[in-house]
Design brief:
heterotrimer; A mainly alpha (124); B mainly alpha (162); C mainly alpha (90); A: 124 residues; mainly alpha; 3 helices; 69% helix; B: 162 residues; 3 strands
Chain lengths: 124, 162, 90
């Protein structure tokens, strides 16, 4: 690799890492700062995922720069993107069932209650 | 063929996932991947009897790129709200999103997209499966958020899963 | 050249995040908040492992990260399912 390209890659990777670190910090800070339980669900699902995503991207490009190709980063990224909504949904359902969610939930508009609060619940 | 491979897409996905997991291209990994890709769909097929009907696979790829971009934008918005907005000015809202999608796969994809994108989070579904309960972190105008979800994501998914 | 410094910053940011999470875990008002915090801690731990892997210059740590991603998710769902249904495996 030419020295110029090397420096450009170095700067690029450093920028991604610093951005990712800030986002991870924002996610954990949001958990402390946001006042309501439902609001607190937003910060970790989004900000932390970007923090890990940045680390994974840098790891993949860094190994690529050394001539190794690693596909596991892609696997972890895919896995986190697929599981974050599922765990957020489960946490939201737990909050709703335990009555800790924000008040003022609207009607579903279909004549049926929300699934978590229905009498005969299907498997969650 | 149909009985041996009840879910061809799932089989393909499992083979690719196995290769990503072992991180090397060897003939032994291929054998293991094919074994897993055949056995897992067979064992679990009782839990998903229907196949998803995907009409436009390429539109699905374009959708994935759109969502990935939105995830990054979403993070900047959420970070700004978390860091700089005074606590009592954050206007959270519940939003009901009536669904036109009927396939379970399409609905779960929409629910996941809503959670990953700007300031919204899928919290629940109505017992009949025709409406989603969405929580927005900061939405002064909840109706606009609902229309945005329907126009930006649901309309695209409707074209993909016809 | 400056990548090691950026890496140090990233590791420090994750460490501070984990300390904030621990503080939250101790002072959380509800049980569900503790589960949210544990989920966040799992994701932060994955970031820590991956960043350490970059620092060590090998891809070996990624396998640890894969396992962490798997067990962290299953753990969160198991806690929630227990609170929702009263049992984990029905």
């Amino acid at each position: 690799m030419t020295p110029l390209l090397d420096t450009a890659l170095d700067l690029f990777l450093s920028a991604i890492l610093i951005g990712g670190g800030i986002f991870a910090l924002v996610g954990s800070y949001g958990l402390l700062r946001l006042p309501r339980p439902m609001q607190r669900l937003h910060a970790p699902t989004k900000a932390t995922t970007i923090g890990v995503g940045a680390a994974l991207l840098v790891s993949a490009l860094d190994l690529l720069g050394q001539g190794q190709i690693s596909w596991q980063e892609l696997l972890i990224t895919l896995f986190l993107l697929l599981t974050a909504p599922v765990s957020a949904l489960f946490l939201a359902k737990t909050l709703i069932l335990r009555g800790e969610a924000d008040p003022g939930m609207p009607d579903s508009g279909t004549g049926q209650p929300w699934a978590t609060l229905a009498e005969e619940r299907a498997d969650p | 063929m149909r009985r041996l491979f009840p879910h061809p897409y799932l089989t393909l996905t499992l083979i690719v996932l196995w290769f990503l997991l072992v991180n090397q291209w060897k003939i032994g990994s291929l054998v293991m991947a094919v074994i897993l890709g055949t056995v897992i769909p067979l064992i679990t097929s009782t839990w998903w009897p229907d196949r998803p009907r995907i009409q436009r696979p390429f539109a699905l790829a374009a959708y994935a790129v759109l969502v990935l971009w939105d995830v990054i934008v979403a993070n900047f918005q959420v970070a700004r709200i978390v860091l700089f907005m005074p606590r009592d000015r954050i206007r959270s809202a519940w939003i009901t999103v009536p669904l036109e999608l009927t396939q379970p796969e399409a609905i779960s994809l929409l629910a996941g997209t809503i959670t990953m994108t700007p300031g919204t989070l899928t919290a629940d579904m109505s017992a009949c499966g025709r409406a989603l309960l969405v929580h927005a972190l900061h939405a002064p105008d909840p109706d606009a958020v609902r229309d945005d979800i329907k126009a930006r994501y649901e309309a695209r998914l409707q074209r993909i899963f016809a | 050249m400056i990548l090691p410094h950026a890496l140090t910053f990233f590791l420090a940011a994750i460490a501070v995040s984990l300390v904030l999470n621990l503080w939250r875990l101790a002072t959380a008002p509800t049980l569900t908040d503790r589960i949210v915090t544990l989920d966040t801690m799992a994701v932060n731990a994955i970031a820590l492992v991956v960043a350490y892997g970059i620092w060590a210059g090998t891809g070996l740590y990624l396998e640890v990260a894969v396992l962490f991603a798997l067990t962290g998710f299953v753990g969160t769902v198991a806690y929630c399912k227990y609170l929702l249904r009263g049992s984990i495996i029905e």
